[in-house]
Amino acid sequence: MPPLLELKKVTKIYGGGFLNKDNQTIAVNKASFTIEEDQPKIVTIAGESGSGKTTMTRMLLGSITPTYGEMFYRGKDFRKLSRRERRQFQLEVQPIFQDPFESYNPFYKVDHVLHAPIKNFKLASSKDDRDRMVVEALHMVGLQPDETLGRFPHQLSGGQRQRIMVARALLLKPRVILADEPVSMVDASLRATILDSIQTLNKELGITIIYITHDLTTAFQISDTILIMYRGNVVEHGDVERVIHNPQHAYTQLLIDSIPQPDPDHRWGELVRATGTDMVGTGKQRDIFGIEPGIDVEYDEVEPNHWVLRSDVAMNGQTPAGSSAEPAVPAGS
Ligand SMILES: Nc1ncnc2c1ncn2[C@@H]1O[C@H](COP(=O)(O)OP(=O)(O)O)[C@@H](O)[C@H]1O
Ligand SMILES: [Mg+2]
Which of 57, 207, 251, 322 is the most buried (most CB within 10 A)? Predict the structure, then answer.
């Protein structure tokens, strides 16, 4: 059986144009990625701000088209999907958690939020049928219909609102759920609730979860597989235990060295700025990690299910020859 979704060396370039090549941003560079339906996993795409995570997500959702490369849905070229196949794809691959607060019009009741996708995709044959689906979805996420239906979003707790968003996605019976930075703006208890529901969706409903984050700690807690992105490139990927315990790419090593920071405000961005690299893929220079915009990508399998971007200058923890750049640890750590 072909994979549910397969990306082969997809690249997304923003801006530029043929008269203005200097203003191009290579947001994602030749990324490959496969989602198998028969082994539903939690896959983390990790990287700091600007590394290309959201661009990758939007390509996986079909909401933007890669500039180069190929994408297949159930073995079929994405560009050649029929209307019916594309609709099937939109049901099977669902985003959730994005701006859980802003995605509600405050004047709509919860009912409206849940009815909209049913109406959009013509999923119900009658009002009774629709109401049955809504109640079933609410129960799946542990919500009581009489405590949620008929209410406005502001009458619910943050945790309840978040569960409504999950229920909304579940109405469509997705096989893949993409969650782009679902916990970056929430407090610790809601974060635990969200991470818990991600795991439930995966373990109990067999849904593949693509979890996008800049936080390696939660990635390690919940995911099976991880992709580390740096300036649009997947620099290392594979089994999360192996990647985190035995990081091979200098950039991954730098990130992992920075995890046990007791300071919660410590962000990767500050760390990498301390190395003197610009994070946007427009610079023409190779940086200390051997990355230059649009580089060709090849991976070495360093151990089973653990791949690292091949690079002449930054492998196995060796700093590039002639470089004075120690992978820097920021002041105060
Ligand atoms: N619509 C856009 N137009 C131009 N540049 C963009 C656009 N979206 C993202 N970029 C650029 O692409 C790069 C990757 O962005 P993004 O995918 O949002 O990264 P992340 O989600 O990891 O923060 C960044 O340099 C960003 O500025
Ligand atoms: Mg993003």
Answer: 251
Say whether both 167 and 296 belong to one domain: no
Q: Is residue 232 part of a domain?
A: no
How far apart are the CA of 49 and the centre of ligand 2, in A?
A: 6
Q: Is the CB of 55 under 6 A from ligand 1?
A: yes
268-308 pLDDT, tens per residue? 444 444 444 444 344 445 677 777 778 889 999 999 999 99
* Same domain, yes or no: 165 and 260: no
Are residues 12 and 157 part of one domain? yes
Q: Which domain holds residue 319?
A: 244-333
- CA distance linking residue 12 with residue 55, whole number of Å: 8
Distance 50 CA to ligand 2 centre (A): 7
Residues facing residue 94 across a β-bridge: 177
Report the atom number in ligand 1 closest to the C-alpha of 279.
25
Domain count, the chain: 2
User: Please, what is the average pLDDT of the chain?
Assistant: 83
| Cβ-contact 150, 110 below 8 angstroms | yes
Neighbours of ion ligand 2 (CB under 5 A): 53-54
Calculate helix-pair angle for 127-140, 110-120, nearest 10 degrees: 120
| Sign of the alpha-carbon torsion through 59, 64, 69, 74 | positive
Quick one: 248 and 199 in the same domain?
no
DSSP assigned state of 78: G
Query: 50 CB under 6 A from ligand 1?
Result: yes
pLDDT in tens, 54-110: 999 999 999 999 999 999 999 999 999 999 999 999 999 998 865 555 666 778 889
Q: How far is the CA of 104 from the centre of ligand 1 (A)?
A: 25
